[in-house]
Amino acid sequence: MTKPADVAKKQVSENTSADTLSLQALLDLQRAAFLRDGIPDAETRIDRIVRLQAMLLDNAEEISEALTADFGSRPRELSIAADVAGCMIDLNHQKRHVKKWMQTSMPGKVLAKAGLRQEVRHDPKGVVGIMGPWNFPLQLTIVPAGSALAAGNRVLMRPSSITAKTTAVLAKLAPRYFDLEELAVLTSAHGGGSDFAKLEVDHLFFTGSPEVGASVAAEAGKNLVPVTLELGGKNPVVVDKDADIEKAATRVADARLVNGGQVCLCPDYVWVPEAKVGEFTDRVLARWRANLPAIKDNPQFTATINEKNFDRIVDLIDDAESLGATKHQVIPAGEKLPDAQTRKIAPTLLTGVKAGMKIEEDEVFGPVLTVYPYRELDEAITHITSHPHPLTMYWYGEYNENFSKLADSTRSGSINGNDFAINMFGPDLPFGGVGRSGMGSYHGKYGFETFSHARAVAFSTMGLAVSEMMTAPFTPKDVKTANVQMKLWKFFNNRARKKLGHKF
Questions:
Q1: 264 labelled catalytic
Q2: What is the pTM of this model?
């Protein structure tokens, strides 16, 4: 088994990068190393996680500067909190618990007494491919990579080309902390994301849009590569009739502008009791005005990532307004927004949005919030269930019958009550979508299990052979045994049916 000391001896020079090898060569290199060294012990896995943490912590300022350069405007505080410090909780959890998680479990204790030993091994899959997004290019790439390393795998990491400067920094830093056989960071020098999706890795993990996710899954499916898809969607908010409107409006207003609205967990649209819509919208706009005395030249307001997305968001607003929606915007005095040069869009609230408008269907991923009125909760539920399942759903109000009705009547990757993205706090909850918002999950033990293979082991010391019982010749004793089995199962089934009131 590989020891940390052995890894240290194999460390390549700082000048070596993954760019010197082809995609296939890197995959072959890691797979050969995995087969050569065997399943890594807990000490080796912990060592790799510690080095992954060190890579971020040692270089936090350089990473933050690269993120600001990629976005054009992004606060250092957000980059440090989300993309550096934000990785540490889950990585620490992996580090603390991996020794326990990797142990073989023995569920079949009753059968063991009859001579049939049963075990479940938690084996690494081999080489894992991680495809990261641009909105949080470290957190949403490093955290799954940490889970894959904890599970004992080698990792090929492909951050987004959209945040090219951040990807370049990671590619430069990785060889200082990892041998290419352990973890390699790939760049556009290895082609596009579609090229990466074609690799015959042992598991492929993708975070991004549903449209690209479908393409990635299709490419991986050609090689029968298992995939985990962490996607997005239009996340709804429902404000209960008895909720604190000021608190709900303030928190939703803040949540909509996190990272310039470019978060897969951002609230996209809000259902508010009809009588309180005016108060809610007024308070949202007031919150934005208070927090943003300047926008265009404000380094604390995250810019839209690129021109393509800037144009797309502006078009969604213009389309809704042209078809009858009412636009409410917060534009500081003396500023002209939207501004294409800085890619800044004024925080926008839309009312009167109806079917047929693009924003009814498209995930905004920007500083735009839609507000709908409702008289009965069923109106909100009908709207939500008529659209693809979102990544998360927000509820403002008490943990009451209305909340239970909403939760029972809808589907989403998660539900957050009275605050933004609190399902991400702590490593004990699974993170993932459902349907169009994704498949599979990670964080904590869920991440370890995603990148592990639960391998069944059964070992017999019984005096009889199952194979002999299932092949000719079948004796009168075999016939009698089969008949007894049928009588017993019919007895148990009839008893259950009688208890349930079935007529038979």
A1: yes
A2: 0.93
